[in-house]
Amino acid sequence: MSGYQAYGNGMYERLLSIGEFTGLDQSRGLHSGDVGSSPDAVNFIARFGDLRTSNGVAKYGAKIPNSSYESVGGRLFQGFFRDEFGNDFSKIVMALHGRFYVSNTDAAQWTPIGATFSTNNWTAVNYRDDVNEWLIFTNGVDTAQYWDGKSSACMPLKIVQGKITETSVNEAGETVTVVTNPGEELHFSAITLLHERLWGGVSADYPDRVYWSNSFDPNDWELNYTDSEYDGGGFLDVATFDGSRIRAIVNAMDDVLIFKDKSIHRLSGTYPGEFTLTQVFGTDGTLAPRTIVTNGSALWFLSSDGLCRYSGMEASPLSALGDRKLKDIWARINDSTIDSACAVIKDNVIYLAVPLDGSIINTHVIEYHVLDGTYSIIDLPGVDDWLLLREGQLETLLYLNADQIYRYDSGYTFDGAPIHARWSSPMISCGTLSSRKQTGRIYLTVTAQSLNIQEMPKIKISMFSGNKVREKLIALKPGLNEIRKRVKIRGRMFRFQIENVDGGPLIIHRGMEIHVEEDFD
User: Fold this and answer.
1) In CATH terms, are 3-56+420-520 and 58-303+388-408 the same topology?
2) What is the spatial distance between Cα 72 and Cα 107, in angstroms, rounded to a whole number?
3) Strand residue runs (E) in 261-348
4) CA 7/CA 15 separation, integer angstroms
5) pLDDT of residue 227
6) Which residues contact 434 (CB under 8 A, 6 or more apart)?
7) CATH class for domain 3-56+420-520?
């Protein structure tokens, strides 16, 4: 644990011990009591007490072929299918340039499928029954599409309610069915699957309405059930009369969750006759539907209150639970483009890409470790979408930037660019302002590596007090280093800063110590 220990000559000398690094914490600004936390850090990650530079990213597969369309705002999906022998296979599908592109899971070659559409902003769900294996796409504007994993084009899936037919027998004794009303085609921006039926919503025409299909039939959305029946399509309105609209529909913990701007609602039950709608209290809804992620035991999402957690019964912003560690970061999010934010969860770490400081694109990735509650922020612009690629038991974290997929947590550079990492401590007073402190030797253990084999790795340690700055550039050897260096500065309060040099990867192991002399008034 971080703290202070009396040392040497009474109260005039002490050893400031940083037992472990605990990640970003902006809850008390520069004056946090935890000297192992940082109010200002970038590209450093605190994990299990150690501090390490973030891993890099590397290109994954080939770029999408050149196009006259602008390569922004693409989406990534993975479709799961079976071949004629019953063997499982999957494909990556990218929505970009107003159309779909498909590749094997190595993304080595992209093939366009389907026609050109009006937007890249698709959502998708994998659907399988005894006959069909489809990846179904909706975007809220165009006719829904599906792809079977083999065909050279997507096929339209026209979702209709209100179709009226009349059946009669002609003179030849044949039964004839005539469509007297073609019904209304529905366009969803959100679609999910639960209990063998599809659920859709986020419609421009019906902003409070949620639809469901008949069981095992993605083509049948007709309102044809009664309260006593088990099957049939239908809809319900989630009216809250507060000016908000439905933003997302997801399945979570055997329920359908309906996210509006200012509220969350849970729809429970297996069949239409037993559906029950309940409001979930504790926080607002979400303005960023692509930030909703689940790890099985909980669901997480971004709201106007910051990161929130849904446990299955109630939802709470982490700030209401005492976690205000990212209060400055949340305040920097560009509300006008917050719908570009997107998230994924892997190995109990949430990766949340957000637009900061007025940007119209995502500029940074927030990493939140749900087990130990630590935060890190990575300066990585341009994450348009995430994909957790699953191949058997192997999971690979990918993201899309323009027309290129990248692998996250790969290597020691940002696709060849050095990773510049900075960690700044809070202000340190050693528990009192009645003494002037002078820092002396710093003790720490560092594992280092250079990006250039012809150069030695380096670390930069700086001390700040008022307007005074003292810096020490320390040459290291590759591998494990035990550092014992003086970085002197004098003042009633001070802080320190650690930086890598030339983008070299570092691990600062737990147990850093700073020798401090005190002179009391």
Assistant:
1) no
2) 18
3) 264-268, 276-280, 293-294, 299-303, 306-310, 315-317, 342-346
4) 6
5) 57
6) 520, 521
7) mainly beta
SS (H, E, C) 468-502: EEEEEEEECCCEEEEEEEECCCEECCEEEEEEECC
Q: Which residues contact 441 (CB under 8 A, 6 or more apart)?
A: 484, 485, 486, 514, 515
Q: Tokens for 25, please give them.
A: 């914490």
CB atoms within 10 A of CB 182: 12
Q: DSSP string covering 251-288, please?
A: EETTEEEEEESS-EEEEE-SSGGG-EEEEEPSS---S-
Distance between CA atoms of 399 and 76, rounded to whole angstroms?
8
Q: Each residue of 125-144: b (16+ CB within 10 Å) or e? A: bebeeeeebbbbbbbbebeb
| Residues counted in the chain | 521
- Is the separation of the CB atoms in 40 and 496 below 8 Å? no
Say how far apart CA 334 and CA 330 lie, in whole Å.
9
Tell me the three state secondary structure of residue 330.
helix
Given a cut of 90, whether residue 8 has pLDDT beyond it is no
pLDDT at 416: 94
pLDDT digits (tens, 9 = 90+) for 129-154: 888 899 999 999 999 999 999 999 99
Nearest alpha carbon to residue 6 among 521, 515, 385: 515
**Residue 514 and residue 16 in contact, taking contact as beta carbons nearer than 8 Å:** yes
d(CA 502, CA 378): 17
Out of 178-187, 367-376, 471-480, 482-491, which region has the weakest mean confidence (pLDDT)? 178-187
Query: Using an 8 Å Cβ cutoff, are 14 and 437 in contact?
Result: no
Quote the CA–CA distance of 494 and 466 in Å, as a whole number: 8
* Three-class secondary structure of residue 102 per DSSP: strand
Judge whether residue 284 has pLDDT over 90: no
The alpha-helical segments, DSSP class H, found in 235-339 are 327-332
Query: Where does 58-303+388-408 sit in CATH, by number?
Result: 2.130.10
pLDDT of residue 1: 39
Question: What does the CA dihedral 23, 24, 27, 28 come to, rounded to 10 degrees?
Answer: 90
Residues 6 or more apart whose Cβ sits within 8 Å of residue 366: 326, 329, 350, 351, 352, 353, 354, 375, 376, 377, 378
Share of the chain above pLDDT 90, in %: 69
What's the CA gap between 499 and 405, in Å, rounded? Answer: 29
Neighbours of 77 (CB within 10 A): 21
| Domain residue limits, the chain | 3-56+420-520, 58-303+388-408
Distance CA 418, CA 501 (A): 9
Q: Is the pTM of this model over 0.85?
A: yes
